[in-house]
User: What shape does this take?
Amino acid sequence: MLQYNIHLRTVNDFRNYANMIVRFNIAGFVRVRKEEINMYDILEIMSQGPVDSMILNLTKYTPAQIPELEHYMEKANFFNDLNTEDVSNIA
Assistant: This one.
């Protein structure tokens, strides 16, 4: 399983997230405010409001696509800076 600490704060962030889950062959869940949500349940994720930090857990993925996926997430500015942010209470 791969884990990423990401944020979805704006409409454009949610749009990029939706494009990502369609573009890449991935499956898993997100952990938002101590709640686990299927990563494809965009309406439930959006109902949480702007998400400053959530853990994206990939349980199924194509290893060869991971560099491209990580590049996509970096270009979309999804990543939170783990060096300056305490994420211990998120998961």
Notes: The mean pLDDT is 90. The helical segments are 11-23, 42-46, 66-75.
